[in-house]
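Allow me, if you will, to draw on your knowledge of protein folds for a short while. The matter concerns a single protein, recorded as an amino acid sequence and a row of backbone structure tokens. Kindly check, if you would, that the fold set down in the tokens agrees with what the sequence suggests. You will find the record immediately after this paragraph.
***
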Amino acid sequence: MLKYKPEGDLVTKPPALHPDPSKTLIGQHGIRLVPTTKDHFHGLFASVCGPENDDLWTYMPSGPHRTVEAFSATLTARMEDDEWLLYTIFPTSSFIPSRVSSSQIIAAVKAPTSAIAPMPLGIICLINFSPANLSIEIGHVLYAKSLQRTPASTEATYMLLRYAFEELGYARVVWKANSWNVPSRRAAARLGFMEEGTFRKHLVVKGVRRDSVWFSCIDDEWFLQGRGSVKAGLEGWLEKSNFDEKGIQIRKLEDIRNSLTEGGRA
């Protein structure tokens, strides 16, 4: 009889599922996550490319792109990767953009649906699927400036976290950031991801060395009841009552997450 016994918690869950490339995810803060198709390329190029958007590409593995052809080639390569699913973020009539005047916000909210062009707001992806290991990653997050620092930008990540944990059966969702990318690292911590450590000299990107800081959220933290619950914290923060008429938060996400009670109330 073998005396060998692997150490660690026994895993009884079945392998997770691959994301459904035909499934659209719909949020409550004016966005839809639609699996990317080539029909989205020109709209995305207009939203996230051009000299005025060069700063968006500082930490991306490619870009900035000067032509729609180059941009399309990059997206096509990602779409052909079996471990990537790209989502185009589209606004609905209730979306309130950032970096616009109050009068523009009011006009956008009051405008009829047909008057609001369905211009994409960016891309967010599920990548590096490992169903057998119950692990998946949220990455290649590229938000147009009109989406940044809005409730919808947080909701996009929440929607993928909920989808991964509750519908696909993953136990771990990864977030990686270039060590120089302080905004991404702050975003991960704010959303509830835990920092795990740094892979030094992990990659060479655009001719320069990249150290990668790893973060994760695991199912225990997602489904936790009470203080520190990632799911309950995000859902509490995303409540309509947590925002004023201009879409400005009333309570910070971290404060809500850290004040949760066993009943899930903040």
